[in-house]
Fold each of these.
Amino acid sequence: MKAIRIVAAFIAISLIVLSVITDNKQILYYTQFFIGAMLLIYSISEFQNKRKARAVYLLFLAGIIVLMGALSLSN
């Protein structure tokens, strides 16, 4: 789980830097997807550590962020 979390964070940071350097706003939607994936992984880790309140909160945030990114890509 930790390796997947690090890879998702690295991809998100790389996309943010690329978006700033190239001034391409379309890349930010993919960044939202990877940040949502990161939050989803964090919520699974929290469920495993028996912290259900925090896990549900992170799961809710991950769902909203991934949904916003997916809706923005379809336009």
Amino acid sequence: MEKIRKNIGLLFVVIFTSAFGQEATDETTETLVSEVSVKDSVVAKRMKLDGIAAVIGDYVILDSDIEKTLVDLRNQGASTEDVTHCQLLGKLMEDRLYAHQAVQDSLLVSDDQVNATSDRQIQQLVQQVGSMEKVLKFYKKPDIESFRTELFEINKLRILSEKMQTEITKDVEVTPEEVRQFFYRIPEEERPIFGAELEIAQIVKQPKAPEAEVQKIIDRLKRIKQDVEENGSSFRIKAVLNTRDEPSRANGGFYTVTRQTPFVKEFKDVAFSLREGEISEPFETQYGYHIIMVEKIRGREVDLRHILMIPEIPDSAMKEAAKELDSIRNQLLDGKYTFAEAAQNFSDEKETRNDGGVLRNPIDFGSRFELTKMDPTLYNQIRDLKDNEISRPLREDDPRGGAPKFKIMKITNRYDEHKADFAQDYLKIQELALREKQYKAIKEWMDEHIEDTYIHVDAENRDCDFANNWVKE
């Protein structure tokens, strides 16, 4: 199992790192070395004049990129005790090869998509530390423009890299027989240990806005649509001024969406039904009411902007939802319904209603949640529940700014920590088997494209024991 774990690769995520490659030119490395400084580095010790660690196609990796990556990992709380210089360099080289080949294969990334990602990250950082000034101080940037420019380059390279990896693995699947063979190849003493798991069910009541308030929102969205179509008004500006979707507000409601993007089905169905330049009629999702304008269709990807508006819900509707759930809970305690029957009859959450209220784990869509990997919000809701106990009504606010909902919850099954069992843990084993097959597909792709791509590794790094044949011996 240890070998399989290592094969999956160096599993860490560098979100806000300065370790992005710079485009290579025909200038000599001597000029680059003399001109590049490391004044922005947060490494306490003095660093030598920056040099080139490696070149991958159109990208240069500087020595400072490796140092900054290590520092940023530490700043994010990641353990770096077992992370070596050579491992970091190898990971950066992989990312550059993906990005280089993505450009060669015309897997392009729009500036709007990159800017939208950067805006969401900046917004999250400000929320975490309290102000933009504190963010700039932490990352040692003189102003927002320089920070945004650096984030743009980081995110562009990362998105290109992810697009290429997705392209490599998109058709990789595992059959039940491959899953079985994968599992029984693992020596029994090396089979993974799965932590304690819970199965959880819930019944949800969603307070409703009055019809008059809903109609007011629909009419506002229709007026915006008309103003853009007939008067040439900017949809982007309209989104900045009106949308309640905070993550996309700063970038004018922009998203790049594929069928795999984890947005609700109703949103994606409308997005993929529109032509370029077309604006949808107002439509409803669990978050509120939207209109969408499609800007660009690129194969399986759609660049779009949307505006979300949320009808105001009076306190009386919220109190009524909580009261109704309390009544349902009393009927459950009296044995009038099973929890599954009550969910099917009364829950407003269609994703779980027809499954007896059973929650699905977004990682593998199974019904089990491992305690150590559970979303903190969900864990806090159920941590004090005993088996088969039914919670009192709980209020859950929407982090995106939508209407709150109320729920009662129940732990329906509990599984103790155990060694992997083929029948009991099939979905988890299937996921491990798929990862191994994807890893093999990526390794084959790597081997092929390393041969076909210009790669130079500096003499100081040639003795590294890389996972890939970067030195081309």
Amino acid sequence: MTKTIFFSVGEPSGDQHAARLIRQLTNPGGLAMQNTERVVCRGFGGPSMLAAGCRVDLDLTRHAVVGIVEVLPKIREFFRFADQAEAIFRSGSVDAVVLVDFPGFNWHIAKRAKKYGIPVHYYCPPQLWAWGAWRVRKMKRSVDHVVAVLPVEEAFFDQHEIPVSLVGHPFFDAVEEQQLDTAVMRRFHQQTQSGERIVAVLPGSRDHEVRANFPIQLETIRRLHREGGESSQNVRFAVAAYRDKQCLWCREQLSEQDSDLPIDFYVDCTSEIIEVAHCAMMVSGSVSLELLARETPAAVIYRVGRVLHAVGKRVLKIDSVTLPNLMAGRKIYPEFISVGDPAPAVDFLTETMHAMLHDKFYYAKTRRELGQLRELHASPGASRRAAKLLRSKLLESADSAAEKNSDAEQTKTRQAA
């Protein structure tokens, strides 16, 4: 017996999460072959899903957009994609639909799947718990089951009486699977063995984040180096850029007076830097999950404009912008939202990083709390747990359909008699 799951994935990160799930679902030696059923996957996604063995009907990741300005010119195109998905649903060849993030488009996919009675599961669901709670009714109408990746998600959807199961975050699977660059790690270990402590500087993955936040981080580095005394002389700062142009821009922010700063710039070495770092200063984002997985203490900043901050205060319903803090229910990672004058953010970063570098009791306490949180919520295996859950849902749907067919046949028999 073969079961077909249709995936709808619109972002590169979701493409990677879905690929891991697909491998677990279709692995001949794993979950999918138990009880003689075989699972095949098709749908909208990207290159990672294709490499995992999924039939990709449309590379949706090539059309990922952010914000209403980018979305409007593509509305007709997205409706055409939804029509393409509906044609597949109409054929009767799909047994379940799995959505991964990308809510603006995936609501339409869910609605069209429900027209044909196809069960819809949302993996890595939209963050309605943080903002957009008004869309809960839409979730109830169009989604049968939420596969949550964060404890706060499970609590939110359970509170709103939407079927939900917590499997953990697939990001931790990625951290476990990642092979660190041995040459880079050897270089870093030589530094740490000579007595240097490395501070990871993570300025963000998007260009606007880097431009807004790195100047604050750089000024903090200046103050830590020049005002920290002899105890700061064995500290070296490693800036982890995601792209070459971001790295170049960060370098260009150094002045002639910064020639004495113990600072190095790297591209595509973020994981290696986090692994060896004593601590980090970071811009809020999903990288915080890797810091948790590697138990690296950090101070978090995020700089926003006044208008966005005012809107966020009205819309956001959370006490933290850092995922591990939301998982813990308290601020293990100190954080600061910077608006207007950057000086308070520099003060915050300087004081917090100084404590992490020089207060052994504070540092040990933070490491201990990160270890406890990692044990609770950062264990790998989310992809396998999600695959096991979806497989059980497929079996339930098959049994339910068989039961309905049996009832229908019995009714026909009685009517004929």
Amino acid sequence: MKTFFKPVARLCLLFVALTFVGCQSDTVDEPVMNDENTLMASSATAKLIERTVSNDGSFDNIVDGSSCFDIQFPYTVTVSGIDITINSESDLSLIEKLFDAVDDDTDLLEILFPITVVLADYSEVTIDGVSDLRELASQCVEGGDDADIECIDFVYPITLFTFDTRSQQTGSIAVSSDKELRRFFAGLGPNDLIGVDFPITFELHDGSKLTVDDYVALADAIENVKNSCDEDDDSDYNDDDFTEERLDALLVECPWVLQSILRENQDWISDFRENVLTFNEDGTTTIEHGGAIFSGSWETMITDWRVALKLEFEGMTDLNLEWFVYEIDEGKIKLFTDDANKVVLEKNCEYTKPCDDESITANLSECIWIVANGGDSFLSELTIDFSNFNIHVYNPNDVAVDEGNWSLEEGVLSFNDLSMELANYIGEWRITSCTDDRLEIKRGEELLVLERDCDN
């Protein structure tokens, strides 16, 4: 701590006082200040401090729907006909569990009034009914745009010096919490002067510490990080239950069954019942739909402070959206874009994908195959034998017109060493759809559809 600050601050404040006394009979000009050691209570820096220590009311949004205040413990709520007494923040998880018990229900909660709410400046107001609560909540700015700054915190204790330009009184006070500091500011007039006993330390939202030695550094510290974290100023009470990293790890653990799907308020589960999604670590994914396997890609991201899962499938676009993750709980992942579009995935580690590399290899090795989308081209006249990882191509007269070999790895089918009729088809083809008797493979924009013929 700077041992010279206290006498310097007091001398500065005394200088301000003498200057103000000497001028008050002749002029109404603002008092002279030394910006290095004092600031006015109405200054931008003082307002930043005030915002940083305001009460954060977002932790109980599941009850009151407002981030600008919280409800003072204890109080009672009724959820699904069950009365719950909320004695502490940890009791809010009981409400969450009841809400999550049913996936598609409407979450209804009733508060037993009267209640006492604590406002941003830690003052308390008694609320007698739900209409008064909604009126108060309507005055709150949500979504992280409210005045409260939550990404940085003061480390206490902090000593402050004051000078009242009206009564010409000086003083000092030690504060040990956000509440004490915020209430201190609530008692100041716009022309009151404040001194801070530097250095002071901040703790950032990631747990790191930052020490500052003057008002410029103090203001910069708050300004630089005030929008750098998720303030969770919304009613999505589940979004603190997981991280992007946890979601990434969970998706690749096992296949996931589509348990429910709502698109534009229409229940589509009859079309997608028992459809299975498999997520691979390389960012590829497949879905088994209608007896076929469709390939696509997946990635997670942070969008608007939410964890999102982006899906893109070839040939099957019903899931091609950027889905926000609503909840991860007990083997389920709940996704949504809005109230009209929701998906629930359920983990199924016992599921065996019917068209994995092993199954496809076994199927290709049996019978002969034709190019089903050959149209009027020469491809429609050919038959192909893939047995023993070889490729033997025959024309309608059963004459061999080409030969080579093939390999398959992680859904990529490679044609090798072809030199005649199919020489242009050498290379890697990704399997985009699969059944026991049909394969769709793509190379860039080029598509081949192979169908098995066991009658010839």
